[in-house]
Specification:
- With 439 residues, the chain is α/β, with parallel strands linked by helices.
- It has one domain: 3-Layer(aba) Sandwich (Rossmann fold), CATH 3.40.50.
- It contains 19 helices and 15 strands.
- The strands form 4 sheets. A 7-stranded mixed β-sheet has the order 3-2-1-4-5-13-10, with helices on both faces. A 4-stranded antiparallel β-sheet has the order 6-7-8-9.
- α12 links the parallel β2 and β3.
- The longest helix is centred in the N-terminal third of the chain and has 25 residues.
- It is globular, with a radius of gyration of 22 Å.
- The structure holds S-adenosylmethionine.
- The site of S-adenosylmethionine has 19 residues, from α8.
- It catalyses: a 5'-end (5'-triphosphoguanosine)-ribonucleoside in mRNA + S-adenosyl-L-methionine = a 5'-end (N(7)-methyl 5'-triphosphoguanosine)-ribonucleoside in mRNA + S-adenosyl-L-homocysteine.
- GO terms for molecular function: mRNA 5'-cap (guanine-N7-)-methyltransferase activity; RNA binding.
- It is found in: Nucleus.
């Protein structure tokens, strides 16, 4: 528990000196949205045109964010504490049933409704960030492969198939989609079938094989549900979902094993999860010691928070119109240990704010195409409390369009982090247990 206290209360959590300002600076980016009609964006905005009329000098665009990850590397690698010492009893109060029925009952929103949502840009932004992460790791895998090698992907907790297009565009060869919510899996399968029938008619789109099944990935060994149980995966992607498994050690371990066991050496497990340190940092600064939030998101703790337990650190998460169910903090050092036990070596961990900053150069055009930022003219919106950061950013005002997120959306999206683990080679000991080579 000492480890928990230390790692949830590292230096950055107490240091809020420059955090807010830098976060605001980072939030506004010149995307070169130059008063053009929405439908023209794709064609009109190239990387070059961005730069020519850019109201923000390059060096200001990538302002160093001092709100670095709150957790020091030494804490992460610390050997004290961890799953072995903190064996928790599995919790059986039906959280997963609540989660499953929440997602099963979630209505599919139409394009019009989505556009009217207060979090439309944040959702697009998150989707863009996922596509950057997926593209980065697929590229790494492809770089190790020979031409014609298969690319097999597990979309763990696939939801309604929000990432199907990304898989299609990446030319993968086989996709496994699974989720606890049956309704979502059915919708995902339907979307896939529609996509494939479009591909039949197009000479450009590529086809890939697939399998779909609903199950609780924190209880079931997924391998046993695969058509080919000896299948080797190249990528396991678990987007905005892994944290549900941190209800108990047993569930987290089952989920990690599902992510790891069929990955071939050199393959990756990538995920986006809530950043427990950031959540705890905000909680410590909150006037309400059990709750944080703003107009679009709310987190209400229903567990001890001083310190929270390693597993079962439960909170009720509400995100405007999309999520309203129990979630669990992921104690990152514990996740790293569980992953190592299953041959997964941490290769990357970055807050959304940092990953955004890093991906922007390469992903700018796609960010524009996906409407991942709202087009705002600072002089017109500077008085709006949701866009006050623009006043700080453009001290003398500006009448040129910039892309940004509202303060509330930025606060909600920066609750998350990205992480990537690489599957290591192994030999076997004389009891038949794998011995991983963590170079
Ligand atoms: C926020 S949604 C993300 C869906 C999708 N990955 C995406 O990025 O669009 C979280 C998903 O995790 C699924 N989920 C939660 N707990 C799960 C579990 N124990 N086993 C499998 N899926 C689970 C939910 O049903 C839901 O579809």
């Amino acid at each position: 528990m000492t480890e928990m206290t230390e790692s949830y209360s590292s230096k950055d959590e107490d240091d809020d000196s420059s955090d807010g300002e830098n976060a605001q600076k980072l939030q506004s980016t010149s995307t070169g949205y130059q008063n053009i009609r929405l439908e023209q964006q794709v064609v009109s905005l190239s990387a070059e045109s961005d730069d020519s009329d850019d109201p923000i000098p390059k060096e200001r665009r990538f302002i160093e964010n001092t709100a670095k990850q709150t957790e020091g590397a030494t804490n992460e690698e610390s050997d004290s504490g961890g799953p072995e010492e903190d064996v928790a009893e599995p919790i059986t109060d039906g959280n997963m049933r609540i989660v499953a029925s929440h997602y099963n009952e979630l209505k599919e929103t139409g394009r019009k409704e989505r556009l009217q949502s207060r979090i439309v840009y944040m959702r697009n932004f998150n989707n863009w960030l996922k596509s950057q992460l997926i593209a980065e790791y697929l590229a790494r895998i492809k770089a190790q492969q020979r031409v014609g090698d298969p690319m097999r992907v597990l979309d763990l907790c696939c939801g309604k198939g929000g990432d199907l297009l990304k898989w299609e565009k990446a030319n993968i060869t086989h996709l496994i989609c699974t989720d606890i919510a049956e309704v979502s899996v059915d919708q995902c399968k339907k979307r896939y079938e529609e996509m494939q029938s479009r591909a039949d008619k197009s000479k450009f789109a590529t086809k890939f094989s697939s399998e779909f099944f609903a199950c609780d990935a924190t209880l079931v060994r997924l391998r046993e549900r695969y058509k080919d149980k000896s299948l080797k995966l190249n990528l396991v992607s678990c987007q905005f979902a892994f944290h549900y498994s941190f209800e108990s050690l047993t569930q987290a371990e089952c989920m990690v094993r599902n992510a790891a066991e069929c990955l071939q050496p050199g393959g990756y497990f990538i995920a986006t999860i809530p950043d427990a340190n950031e959540i705890m940092r905000r909680l410590r600064q909150s006037p309400n010691p059990r709750s944080i939030g703003n107009d679009i998101y709310k987190i209400d703790f229903v567990c001890d928070t001083d310190p929270p337990p390693l597993f079962g650190a439960k909170y009720q998460f509400h995100l405007e119109g999309v999520v309203d169910c129990p979630e669990f903090l992921v104690h990152f050092p514990t996740l790293v240990k569980l992953c190592r036990k299953h041959g997964l070596k941490l290769e990357r961990k970055a807050t959304f704010a940092d990953y955004y900053k890093e991906s922007l150069d390469k992903g700018r055009t796609l960010l524009q195409r996906m409407n991942g930022l709202e087009t705002v003219i600072p002089n017109r919106r500077g008085k709006d409390p949701e866009f006050q950061h623009l006043q700080t950013y453009f001290k003398g005002g500006s009448s040129k369009s910039v892309g940004t997120l509202s303060q509330s959306e930025w606060e909600a999206t920066t609750l998350y982090l990205v992480c990537a683990f690489r599957k290591c080679k192994n030999t076997w000991d004389n009891e038949g247990k794998p011995v991983f080579e963590f170079d």
